[in-house]
Backbone:
């Protein structure tokens, strides 16, 4: 369970501590990243940040909140603790393979902001692909045919892993 | 401002109501989607859900919380209210072009969960690309050369839109 918090108005109709038990693949990912601090921490991890003090300095959050979020991300197998030596043994936080695979989520967010939330002064950060040497945007394509994905050109269907008691609330309304 | 809540332990070092003023493109997107309900609502929007009662039935949240989140998503130009007639005039919620462009974020989450959070029973939902007719995974590629993106093969650089007073906390630690 990650980042469960009772909402200020006290409702808890859908249990966030059971979100990773939901069949929906979006819900299972929201259980990990559906928290602002977790997303900002992940951003920093992909920027190469690894140490507690560096996370804290960049985010300006309390040690308590930071430790809580790091603990949760380790428990979810997104980060792992790795020892390093600086006088005494300390620990830094590195992305696991599962954490590395969240890169498309973060880069999809970057591309959206560069399209819809850009100031007149231009892009604040530039992303360069070492492979081709160019500044790039992240582009989401179909794994089968390579065409750019458009929500108007896709459909959702029930799969074998959908429990019958969750079908109703996950039923797509395809158009 | 979207979904600002004081954390239970009372810290507010980084002001969430100013998150959309941060230069970082991840932060600007977190200002919109860094809330569990917003993400779950977006998921349902991409499933074709449009009406207040349908969102409520699927998510099981209070009318108050749902109305609050829908209002925020309309204010952020992610959803728009569109009238429909059913006896009297009512309103449904449709994705704006800016909302439609969040599709890659949602589909990147789906692909991650299908890779790292899949039960033995298999995929709960299948996504079919109308273009090629096949079930697909969302794949993130470089807009310039079309190669699959790997965080180990990209670099981050400061761009013209990065204010000098934010450079330090956004500095990449490229490796």
Residues:
């Amino acid at each position: 369970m990650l980042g469960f918090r009772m909402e200020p108005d006290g409702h808890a109709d859908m249990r966030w501590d059971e979100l990773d038990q939901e069949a929906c693949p979006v819900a299972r990912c929201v259980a990990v990243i559906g928290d602002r601090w977790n997303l900002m921490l992940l951003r920093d991890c992909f920027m190469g940040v690894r140490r507690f003090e560096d996370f804290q300095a960049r985010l300006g959050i309390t040690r308590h909140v930071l430790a809580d979020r790091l603990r949760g991300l380790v428990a979810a197998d997104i980060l792992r603790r790795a020892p390093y030596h600086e006088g005494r043994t300390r620990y830094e936080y590195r992305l696991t393979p599962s954490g590395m695979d969240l890169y498309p989520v973060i880069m999809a967010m970057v591309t959206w902001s560069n399209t819809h939330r850009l100031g007149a002064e231009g892009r604040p950060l530039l992303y360069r692909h070492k492979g081709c040497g160019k500044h790039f945007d992240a582009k989401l394509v179909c794994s089968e045919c390579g065409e750019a994905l458009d929500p108007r050109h896709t459909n959702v269907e029930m799969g074998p892993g959908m429990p019958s008691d969750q079908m109703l609330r996950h039923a797509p309304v395809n158009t």
